[in-house]
Amino acid sequence: MAAVAFCLAALTDLFDGLLARRTNSVTNLGKLLDPMSDKLLVLTVLIFLVSMGRAPAWAVAVIVAREIAVTTLRGLAASKGVIMAASRWGKLKNLLQLSATTLLILPPSWYMGRINQLGLYLLFVAVFLTALSGIKYVVDYYRLQKSPY
Q1: Cα–Cα distances in Å, from 54 out to 7, 83, 108, 127?
Q2: Read out DSSP for 29-44?
Q3: What would the pLDDT profile of 14-56 be if each residue is shown by its tens digit?
Q4: What are phi and psi of 108, to 5 degrees?
């Protein structure tokens, strides 16, 4: 049931974004709040998975650190009137995090053990992409600082 609820929450976020783009209702506020809701959804569940022994704490710590850093940079940029929208790397990272988290939520059992293992592998790839996309945000932010705008 938890995996189904998590997937439904993730899908409503996806459809919200698609609907906003399709109806040309994308706003600067939405560009700031949508990634925040993604972060809250994934991080909350990942932290619970660490406490249950289903996700390694170091991997979740890397993800949390990146999310705090990127949110801080986005806030600094927004204070200067610049909106740093989610990049393709960030969206791919989010998809991998959502997929890994969904598989890790599923109860471990003799037939689900391999699914949980796949979830761990996806989480490790997600951690790598999380770090890479975080570096991209830092580079983009510093480029903005040097920009005359």
Answers
A1: 18, 36, 9, 15
A2: HHHHHHHHHHHHHHHH
A3: 777 778 778 887 777 776 677 778 889 899 999 999 999 999 9
A4: -70, 130
Q: Would you kindly state where each structural domain of the chain is located, as residue ranges?
A: 2-146
Q: Pick the more confident residue, 81 or 135.
A: 135
Choose the most confident range, by mean pLDDT, from 23-32, 52-61, 71-80.
52-61
Rounded CA gap, 62 and 140, in Å? 20
User: How many Cβ atoms from other residues are within 10 Å of residue 104's Cβ?
Assistant: 25
Distance of CA 46 to the CA centre of its chain: 11
In the DSSP assignment, the letter for residue 112 is T
**Contact, 50 vs 42, CB < 8 A?**
no
- Nearest-angstrom CA–CA distance, 10 and 6: 6
Contact 122, 101 (CB under 8 A): no
